[in-house]
Structures are given as structure tokens and as C-alpha cells.
Design a protein that fits this description.
Layout (H helix, E strand, L loop, with lengths): L1 E2 L2 E2 H15 L4 E6 L2 E9 L5 E9 L4 E5 L1 H4 L9 H5 L1 E2 L3 E4 L4 H18 L1
Antiparallel strand pairs: 1-2, 3-4, 4-5, 5-6, 6-8, 7-8
Length: about 120
């Protein structure tokens, strides 16, 4: 899983660890090579566990989604300019390489999201 000198496997592995260590009591519904999906314990309008987050290897980056940011954008208040530049839309952050400093900040954001998800 490399593209133009980027090691997506290492980036995915690091982001997977960030998600799993900081997502609290969320439910892992998929944990396969290149794809991690977590759902909340709270049920959505359809009676299904709500979406919490995903880590997914894409063609040109690794995507890290935190769905609580969609309903509660204030959870992302105070993001560093560096992490904000990685943000695509309301819930997604894209990475091509491991960045320990940004991953530490992302870990704290994930923990805030987990606290808000219940």
C-alpha cells in the first residue's frame, strides 16, 4: 500500500491505533485490512447503532472520519491550523504519512467525540 513514496499501510496502522485507543466504548463493526468502522452504543432514528468513526485506505490518502463532528461541530473548536488543513468537509481528515504530533491532537479530538457520543 504505497503510492508515490507514501506508506499507507503504516499510516493506516497508526490511525487505526488512534481510533481504537481513544474511541471509548464504541462498537467495532468492521476491522479488516484497510477498513475500520466503529458505531455508537446509542441508536439512531432507524434503531441501529449510530456512526462514530472510520479509518479507511483510499486511492491517494488514508481517511479518518469522526461522525460526532457532523452533529456537534464545536467539538473541533481550537484545532491547530495544521490539523485543520487535513480536514475535508465536516467529519473527515486525510493523511498520506504518519505525523505523530497531528495524531496526538487527533487522539484528543477522538476522545472528545467519544465523550459526547455517550
Amino acid at each position: 500500500m504505497t503510492l508515490s513514496g507514501h506508506d499507507f499501510a503504516a499510516t493506516y496502522a497508526a490511525l487505526r491505533t488512534v481510533m481504537l485507543r481513544n474511541a471509548g466504548e464504541q462498537i467495532v463493526t468492521e476491522d479488516a485490512p484497510g477498513s475500520l468502522i466503529l458505531r455508537t452504543r446509542a441508536l439512531d432514528a432507524k434503531g441501529q447503532p449510530g456512526w462514530f468513526g472510520t479509518v479507511t485506505v483510499k486511492k491517494s490518502y488514508v481517511a479518518y472520519h469522526l461522525m460526532p463532528l457532523y452533529e456537534q461541530p464545536a467539538l473541533a473548536d481550537g484545532l491547530s491550523p495544521e490539523l485543520a488543513r487535513r480536514r475535508q468537509g465536516k467529519t473527515c481528515f486525510n493523511f498520506k504519512d504518519v505525523d505523530e504530533d497531528l495524531f496526538e491532537e487527533l487522539a484528543a479530538l477522538t476522545a472528545r467525540c467519544a465523550s459526547s457520543a455517550g
